[in-house]
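Morning - iron/sulfur cluster inputs below, output right after.
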Amino acid sequence: MSDSNLHLKLNRERFEISEEFLEKYNRPGPRYTSYPTAPVWQENFHPEDIEQFYATANTARTPVSLYMHLPFCENLCLFCACNVVITKDHSVAPPYIEILEREIAHVSRFVSRERPIVQFHWGGGTPTYLTPEQMEKLFRYTAERFTFAPDAEIGIEIDPRVTSQAHLEALRRLGFNRLSMGIQDFHPEVQEAINRVQPLEMTRDLIDGARKLGFDCEFPTAPPRRIIRDARHFYVPVREVRVETYQGIVHNLTTQNGTFTAPFVVTHNCHAYAAGMDLHTEKGVNQTLASFDKDIGFDKLKVVHLNDSRGGQGSGLDRHEHIGMGYIGTKGFKAILHHETIKDLPWILETPEDERRDDKGNLETVRKLAK
Ligand code: SF4
């Protein structure tokens, strides 16, 4: 390794990150948490297009990265922007696994066994919502249909609130070598506020157990996206609406036979703007919210994620910007924050942190604009 490697010290641990590694990931990428990611939704992409992609990749013999989305969680964290299904009823898992296995069988027919899987990831949701036996069955089903490279990165997102020692042991047995765990904040008040009570001791015990089993642990410790208004009652009755217009920009939007089935939704400024909805003028905000009310209903909207957009209206670019510094701008945010129907909802900041501004700066800006 060269001298230009990055050396980090976090608490008592030292990390060395190579120049090649930094180079590999030094590019903008969409959030995988809403999968498929918001910018890729389009209507003119057909089964034959994906088959063409598979064929080209087979010819080029490119290595494969495989992602599987396991969307279930028992409770909703209020900052969540993932494609999730919240339910404590675990009977939803077997039918989902059955469909996932059909998809695995289908896709594997197009992927040459000569192309090794070099990266494999289970994300969600909470993949350890499945029992160890269900995880084992699903993984073996996959391993029988694809060729894993001997040194493949095999990763999973875990949540200490639902991950047991038996889960960890099963994962290790199967060959998982990376764990990813979101830690937003250890302050009990913040944990209560974001509806994710994950005490330090619980998290530490799981990390200790995982390290003893030989896992490589990574902790995307996102700065707490503070809720700046109190959350209200969450669950409301469901009514049928068309959802295509909002796919990818409104979270928790699930459908059955083309109709809306989720009891509440969370919307997202940057995604909505990048998808073409006008949010940078008062008139645009009024029109966008009126159409939202008509199609989905304000009674379903429970949380608004606040972030400006680095891409223009309709750009399809999923890149968050500081409040007021992007294309939505201060005028747009003023209109959003003062809009009668959402001004009393909980808002969650989902803004970057960099040399231009930190969370506190964005919070101050929001407070100023909301006055
Ligand atoms: S555990 Fe993760 S996916 Fe589930 S609700 Fe919380 S943030 Fe979202």
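Note: The radius of gyration is 21 Å.

O.
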